[in-house]
Amino acid sequence: MDKRRKPNPAERRRDLCDAAIQLLADDGAKGLSHLKVDRKAGVPDGTTSFYFRTRSALLRAAAERLAELDLAELQSVADSSTDQKDDASPSRLSQVVIQAATDPQLSRTKARYELTMQATRDPALAAILQQATDEFTKLHREILVQLMPHGADLEPAVVEDLSNVTLTFINGLLQRLAHGDRFIDTAEQLDGILSAMAAGILKSPNKGRLTRSDGLPPARRSRVAGSG
Q1: pLDDT digit string (tens) for 26-63?
Q2: What are the C-alpha distances in Å from 125 to residues 129, 163, 208, 228?
Q3: CA 220, CA 217: separation in Å to the nearest integer?
Q4: Interatomic CA distance for residues 200 and 206, integer angstroms
Q5: Is there a contact between 149 and 63 (Cβ–Cβ < 8 Å)?
């Protein structure tokens, strides 16, 4: 009698998505196929096609798995930031960003950019990534409030400026790290840069109005408002 444990469908889907993420990192989106995922995951040929009928379905599932991993990691940062008392140690946020330059996080970083490019031609994939971005941004704001002195007293618009600017910088940094350009190599360095950026924003007379959904810089918004 064969007593081998029958694969749990949820676990099998997760393993296939993890294999797909690694393939996206190694070979790019063009190198992703059901058969390659089968081989990468070490499962019988046809397994990936059984769980994900189309390539689009596979990409979307990989995006959902990637978002799950990223958000879980960022949530751990948020949870640990409330307990961080040692000002001499680098923030957990900066540690996580720098770790993105080494595997397994590096593979996720590369896969994320591959999926982002694919999303420009796949509205359903774009929606998955946008939802993850919204949740990621919300957590990032919470972390900033926790890490900054008197962060809880900052006006929401100022927190939004801080979040938008620092998150934009971090995204650009991650892209450079993914290409092997480690011009920032330690969490301490990154902490110093983020602190300087935050200090500059807080000193700005336009704080709370530096980043807006209308996409206009403060001076241009003033001219537009005055023209009416």
Answers
A1: 999 999 999 999 999 999 999 999 999 999 999 999 99
A2: 6, 24, 32, 40
A3: 5
A4: 11
A5: no
Taken in order 161, 99, 12, 56, the sign of the CA dihedral is: positive
In order of their start, the domains of the chain are: 62-203 (1.10.357)
- The predicted pLDDT at position 3 comes to 56
Q: Is the pLDDT of residue 215 over 50?
A: no
